[in-house]
Design brief:
The two termini are about 85 Å apart. The chain is rod-shaped and about 180 Å long. Among the domains are: about 100 residues, no CATH class; about 160 residues, Histidine kinase-like ATPase, C-terminal domain (Heat Shock Protein 90), CATH 3.30.565.10. It has a 5-stranded mixed beta sheet with strand order 5-7-8-10-9. A 3-stranded antiparallel beta sheet has the order 1-3-2, with helices on one face. About 60% of the residues lie in helices and about 15% in strands. It is of the alpha+beta class.
């Protein structure tokens, strides 16, 4: 049973008991005066009959009407009528004289004032309880259900009341707000933790994949290096031989070119077992500008517009300037390669350097064809390349290895037809640390 129903039932029961007590008290009082009341009524009834007979025996209709009025005043509890002749009227015949007869009906119904007061009191008490207790409790129950379902409940009205219910509503609203805020904060933290965990798992998988392939590449490079050197020396010796035909020299030149390309790839593969870089204070703004200087002639030839968003103030990190410049130059060249097939008017290279708290950020973006999800997932794998020709699939893998050796991370954002953005994140030096550190930047930068 609901609280409202229980309270209503209790009020009804209390009012019923109170009414019963009042009725019993009235009944006991009636018993005490009943005998006297009956005797008085009988005397009055006899007097009324005598008066009626006296008037009816010799009086006129007007006198009979006056006598009837007097009788009604004497005994108002009855309904009195006078009939003339044999006309039937409802009620009991009390007296007859000549052509006239006096009749009375039962007592008129009276509603006890006690009952009216009881009903009014019941309605007033119920209305007060409904407004002061029941409705606030129902609002609190409804808000509690909303809160338990995980949503933020509406604010319960009634905080301005200066009673216990007002204090309860105020405390509930404060508690509900704190619970909802805590739940939202926890959900946000869980989402962040899940995102960080997924990102960490992706980085770990990529590191493991690169580590395994790097060891394999280093082993292969080591095995190829010795016979490759012998083959190149042999090719040079044959080229010095006299009597070699023009066709033979042409073929020998192709062999030398191929061996030189193999040597270049082997040297790049060896970078995976290169010792950790020397740590110095490096201004990556200057390093990025140095990488742009190497690519400026190509940008001019291919009508590429540069969007330079590099600050004038230095942004310093600890690392090897030469290796970091190699990373930025590789990303710039990849961006230029990605825009070869689009209209020259739409070729734009964006370079942005910024500091975000404890991190230095370098963004290199292009307006090329972009990459799909599958290409993005394999972009850092060894020997994976989206270039039709000339790509060895080593550039991004080496760049990733250099950045991770510097304690940073490299991210790619791309979509088919939407261009590509390469983001390099590096731990930034404290501003006071960078100011005190010696400026030992590489000449290349």
């Amino acid at each position: 049973m609901r609280l409202r129903q229980k309270l209503f039932a209790a009020i009804i029961a209390a009012m019923a008991v109170m009414s019963l007590l009042l009725v019993l008290a009235s009944f006991m009082s009636a018993l005490e005066v009943q005998a006297e009341a009956v005797a008085v009524e009988r005397r009055l009834m006899a007097a009324a009959q005598r008066e009626f007979r006296r008037v009816a025996s010799a009086g006129s209709d007007a006198e009979i009407a006056q006598a009837l009025s007097n009788i009604r005043e004497i005994l108002p509890a009855y309904s009195w009528t006078v009939a003339k002749g044999d006309r039937e009227v409802p009620g009991e015949t009390v007296a007859t004289e000549g052509d006239y007869s006096l009749h009375r009906s039962g007592r008129g119904a009276r509603v006890s004032p006690t009952r009216w007061l009881t009903a009014i009191l019941l309605l007033v008490v119920y209305g007060l309880l409904l407004r002061l207790v029941l409705r606030p409790v129902e609002d609190l129950v409804a808000a509690s259900r909303v809160l338990s379902s995980g949503a933020r409940p509406p604010k319960v009205t009634g905080e301005g009341r200066i009673d216990e219910m007002g204090e309860l509503i105020t405390a509930f609203n404060r508690m509900a707000a704190e619970v909802a805020s805590s739940r939202e904060e926890m959900e946000r933290r869980v989402e962040e933790a899940v995102g960080e965990r997924e990102a960490a798992q992706k980085r770990l998988a990529l590191e493991q994949r690169l580590s395994a392939t790097g060891k394999l590449a280093a082993g292969v490079a080591h095995e190829i290096a010795n016979p490759l050197g012998g083959m190149m020396n042999a090719a040079r010796a044959v080229a010095k031989e006299e009597g070699l035909s023009e066709r033979g020299r042409e073929y020998l030149g192709l062999v030398n070119d191929g061996l030189e390309r193999v040597r270049t790839i082997v040297e790049r593969m060896r970078t995976f077992v290169k010792p950790h870089p020397s740590v110095k204070s490096v201004d990556i703004v200057e390093t990025v500008r140095g990488a742009l200087a190497f690519a400026r002639h190509r940008m001019k030839d291919e009508s590429v517009t540069l969007d330079d968003d590099c600050p004038k103030a230095p942004v310093r990190v600890s690392g090897d300037a030469g290796e970091l410049q190699q990373v930025f130059l590789n990303l710039i060249m990849n961006a230029l390669d990605a825009m070869k097939e689009i209209d020259p008017s739409g070729r734009r290279l964006g370079v942005r350097v910024a500091r975000d708290g404890a991190r230095a950020i370098v963004d290199i973006s292009d307006t090329g064809a972009g990459m799909g999800a599958e290409a993005l997932a394999s972009a850092f794998d060894l020997f994976y390349s989206t270039k039709d020709e000339g790509g060895t699939g080593l550039g991004l893998a080496i760049a990733h290895r250099i950045v991770t050796d510097h304690g940073g991370d490299i991210e790619l954002e791309s979509s088919p037809g939407g261009g590509t953005t390469a983001r390099v994140l590096l731990p930034a030096e404290r501003e006071d640390e960078g100011a005190e550190a010696p400026d030992d930047r590489s000449p290349e930068s």
